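Onboarding guide, step 5: your first structure request.
Type a short instruction followed by the sequence, for example:

Predict the 3D structure of this protein.
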Amino acid sequence: MRTIRNLIIILSILGTLGYIVVHFGADFVANLTMDKVREGMDLNSEELNGTKTLEKNPELQAFLADVPEIDQSSLPFDTKEEAVKKLAPKFSIGELQELREYAGTSMTEDQQEELLNKLKEKLTKQEIDAVKVILYKELYQQ
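The system replies with structure tokens like these:
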């Protein structure tokens, strides 16, 4: 009986610690990811006012063109943290590392197309729209 009680206590502690790591770790990973993306886009805080960013990057402009028409009430997530929690399990560790590397370098058109195809394979249209909305809000600091 004593070993069962100790096992239950240990599992409860591990479960609680796991929950804390997942809950607060998602916020940390989301902020770290956005910082890496900003660094990869060669943006500093003065340039991150949306207009300059979109003027400098026509691909980003095209990607975010339909954001004002997106119905935000039907999106699966609203924040960076929720996006990380819901999307991270859909990608392998290798794919996440590859995405991080892409964010840290200038991407060729082939790499951009490959990345977009991977996202379309793994994510639903609603999830892609939610990512667009989050990126748009980050760029315009809304």
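Each response can be followed by summary notes, for example: The radius of gyration is 19 Å.
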